[in-house]
Amino acid sequence: MSEENETPLLGAFGEPSKPLHYLGPMQQIQPPRRRFKETETVDYVIVGVGSAGGVLLQRLARAGFSVIGFDAGPFWDTERDWVSDEAGSHKLYWNDLRITGGQHPLALGENNSGRGVGGGSVHWAAFTPRFHPSDFEVYTRDGVGADWPLDYQDIEPYYELLEQEIPVAGPAYYPWGKPHGYPYAPHPMGGVGDVLIKGCTRLGIGVSAGGPVAILSASRGNRPHCIYRGFCIQACKVGAKASTLITHVPDALEHGAEIRDNSMVSRVSMRPDGRADGVFYFDQQGKEHFQRARAVIVSGYAIETPRLLLNSACPGHEHGLANSSGLLGKFLMAQAGNVILGRFDDLIRLYKAPPAHALTEEFYETDPKRDFARGFAIQTVGPLPIAFARQMMTAKGLWGWGMRRTMMDYNHYASIALLGEILPWEDNTVTLADGHEGRPEARDRFGLPVASVTFNLHDNDKKMIEFGKNKVMEVMWAAGATEVVQESRYAHLVGGARMSRTPDSGVVDKFGRSWDVPNLFVMDGSVMPTQGSANPGLTIQALAARTADYLISHGDAIFTSSRRDLEEPPCRKTLSPPGTFTAGVPHLR
Amino acid sequence: MALADKTPHEVALALPAPLRKPAEIVIDHIRHGTFQRSMSVLVMGTSLVSGLEVGYEHYRGSYSNPVMYTPVVLSGVLTIAGATSFMSRKMAKTFLRYIAWTTLIDGIIGFGFHIRGIARKPGGWRMPIVNVVMGPPLFAPLLFGTSAYLGVIASYLQREEDHGPRAQRLEAEAATGPADFRKEIATGQFQKHFCVVTAAATVCCGLEVWYSHYKDNFKYRVQWSPILVAPVLLAAAIGGFKSKRIADTLLPIASAAAIVNGLVGSYYHVRGILNRPGGRKKPVYNVLYGPPIFAPMLFAACGLFGMMAYFMRREKR
Description:
The complex is a heterodimer of chains A (589) and B (317).
Chain A: H1 3-6, E1 21-22, E2 28-29, E3 42-47, H2 51-62, E4 67-70, H3 78-81, E5 99-101, H4 138-142, H5 152-165, H6 191-203, E6 208-209, H7 244-247, H8 249-254, E7 258-260, E8 264-270, E9 276-282, E10 288-298, H9 301-311, E11 333-336, E12 339-343, E13 358-360, E14 376-381, H10 385-396, H11 400-408, E15 413-420, E16 429-432, E17 451-454, H12 459-478, E18 483-487, E19 490-494, E20 520-522, H13 537-554, H14 557-560
Parallel strand pairs in A: 3-4, 3-10, 4-7, 5-17, 10-20
Antiparallel strand pairs in A: 1-2, 6-13, 8-9, 9-10, 11-19, 12-15, 12-18, 13-14, 14-15, 16-17
Helix pairs in contact in A: 2-13, 5-13, 6-12
Chain B: H1 8-14, H2 17-31, H3 36-60, H4 69-87, H5 89-120, H6 128-134, H7 140-156, H8 165-176, H9 181-186, H10 191-215, H11 225-242, H12 244-248, H13 250-274, H14 283-289, H15 295-311
C-alpha cells in the first residue's frame, strides 16, 4: 500500500498544540498551580482528594472559601499517566507498607485504597447503589451493629443530587430500598450480565440490568460515553467512568481551589486552646512544611484517616487526636466479596463491558427465615487475565499446565461476586505500628509509623458468607454453568472513625465534626457506622456534599465558635458542577 | 412482466367478487387525491410508532442533549394533529400542516446533530465506517421524517366527502393554472413526486439496515433480505419516475416485496427480543437493547410509499 493511501480521510491527525493537562480525551485544563503561601492562613485544608475530598473541595471553593486539597499521590494526567493495562495500573493503589493481621487478614491495596487525586474513585468499578433506609437503623431493627445518627431522609436529597452530578446510569425504576430511578439510561449487557440475568430470572430473583453505575451511557459535555472496553478498574482513560478527578476537581480548580499533590500530610497541628491550626506535610523530596488553616478536614479513607489522627497525638490528645472516646481506629469494616466463577460452553468474554453492569439486591435485608442478620447483594465483576489467574489459583489450586489450560478457557468463564454486609466489630481495628504497648514497629520513608490492620470474622458474618456464596453458585448453575468455583475475598473498607449521636459512642458527629476538636472534621468512608451491602462510593460522596452544605451554612462560625448545631442544612442545588441539570431521562425520584 | 403490466383498476378486477367493489373505491379515492381522513389516521399511527421508537432510542442516549426531546414531543403533537385532522378539514389545513412541516424540519435538524455526533466520536469522519456503525444512527432522523412527510401530504389532500363533482371542479381548475405541487397532491396526480420520495427513503433505510445488520455481523442469513430488496425497490422507484411502464410493473412488485419483508422482519425482531436473557421477564430492558422493534416497519413504509406511487396518477408535466 502506498503511503498516500494510509493517510486518513480529511488529512492526517494533528499534534496537540499546547501542553495542557488532560482529564479524559476531551477535557483539558491548565495544569494546577500553587496559589496559597504557607504563611497564608487558608479557610480549609482537606487531607486526601478522593471521593469525599473531591466533592468537598469543589463545594467549598464554589462557596468562596479558600481551600487546599492535599494528596499524597500525583494529580493524574489521564492521557500521560494512565495505561489500559492490568499490570501497569498498580500505582493507582496505596502500596506503601501496611501491616495486616487478625484471624482473617485483609489483602490491602487494590480494591480498598487509592492514591493520587480522585483517590479510590479513579479505580472503583463504579457501582453506585444507594443504602437502604434500613441501613441507618441496623441496631434498632436487628439488635446488631449500630444506628446511624442520621436517617435515610437526611441523605436522600444528596443521593439524588450526586446521581445527577456524576451522573449515574441505571434503570428508570429501581425497586430496592426506597424505590427510585436513575438520570442516565441503563447500559447494554456484557456476557457476565447476561449470565446473571439468565440465572436470576430462571430462579425468579429480581435483577437490575445496566446499572446503577457511575459510567456514562451517553456523552455529557466534554466526557464521552462508555465504549465498553472493560478497563474500568485500571482507571478509565475514556473519561466515561466518573471519578472526582474528572467530575468535581476541574470545577474546584476553576473556582480557586488549590491541589497540592505529592504532599503527604504527617500530622494535624493543634493550638494550646484545643483548636487545630493547620497541617504538617512532607513534599516529594521529603522536606517538611507547615500549612496554616482555619479548619482541617481529614478525608484519607478508613486506614489513613485513623493513622493520621493517631499520629497527631499531642499533649491533651495523648491517645490520638479526637480519640477521647477511645474508638478511633475501631469498628473497621470490609465487605465480603467472594468471587464465584462459572465455566460455560458458550463464549462469555468477561473482559468486555464494564465489570459493573448488573446486580440484584433481593437478599439485602434481614430475612427472619435465615439464621443471620442483614444480607448481601449479587453483582457482576469482570476480572482481567491476571486477576482471573489469581482467582483460579486460590479457587482451584491451579498451577503449571493446569493453570495454562484454564487460562486458555478465560473467554468461557463468567464471574459474579457476592457483596455481603460484615457487621462492625470492636476488635476489627486500625492501630499504629509504633512499637509501643506491644505493638509492632514499622515506619514509612518519612519516619511515620505505618498502620496495622486487624480483621476477624464473627459468627454472623461467616453464616452470611456461607449462605450468600451458595446462593450465587445456585444462580450460576441456573444460568447453565458446567463448572462453578469460588474464591474468598473482601472488598471496600469503611469505618474506623464512626459518627455517633453522643461523644462517648463515636469519633465524629453526624456531619463529620470531631467531638473533641471543633474545627477538625473527618469525612470519608471511615465515618460510616455500618456499611450495608451497597458499594460505599456514592454514599461517601453524598455525605461529603451534605457536610459541605453544613459548613457553608455555618460560614465563619466554624472557624471561631465551638457551638455544635445539629440542624440539617438545606440541600443546595446551586453548587453543582456546570451541566448537572441539563441532561437526563425522566425517572422516578 | 406483461402479466404484471396492469393498471390498479385492472388489478382490482382480478380480486374476488366481494373485495372488488371496496378496492375500486379505495383506488378511485387515491387516484383523485380524496383520502385526507384515511391519510390522517395513517399519520396518527405512524407518528405514534416513530414517537415510541425515537423515545426509547433517545432514552438509551440518556437525553444527554435536551434537543433530543424535540422529536419525542413533536411526535406526540403530530399524533394529536392526525386525530384532529381526521375530524376537521380546518385542522388538517392549519394545525396538521404546521406541525408536519415543523416535524419534518426537526428531522433534518436531527440529521445535522447525528452528523455532528459522528464527527465528535474519536477519529470523527476520518474513520467513517467505524463511526457511522457505532455512532448515532445517521439516517434515523430522516426516516423519522416519514410520518411528518405523510402529514404534509395529508394536509394538502382533499377529503373523502369531496370525491365526485367537487373534486372534478378542482381538477379542471388545476389543469388551467400553472403547475403547482400542492394542486397536484390535491388531485392525486403526484406519482413522480412519490417515486422520488420512495427512492430517497429506500436509500436511507437500505443503508441504515445495512450497517445495523453489519453491526450484528449478519448473524442470520435472513438479515441480508432487506439489503437485497432495497436496491430493487430503489431501481423501481427511479425507473417509475422516468417511465410509467415501470411504475405499473416493477414498482408494485418491489413494493409488495418490501412490505412483506418488513412484516417478516418484525417477526424476527420480536423473536430476537424474546430470546434475549431474561426474555419477557425483562421486557423494557430487552426492547431497549434488543433488535429495534419498529425498525422493520420503516422498511415496510418504503414499500408503502412505492405502492401508493403505483396507485397514484402521474403529473401532467
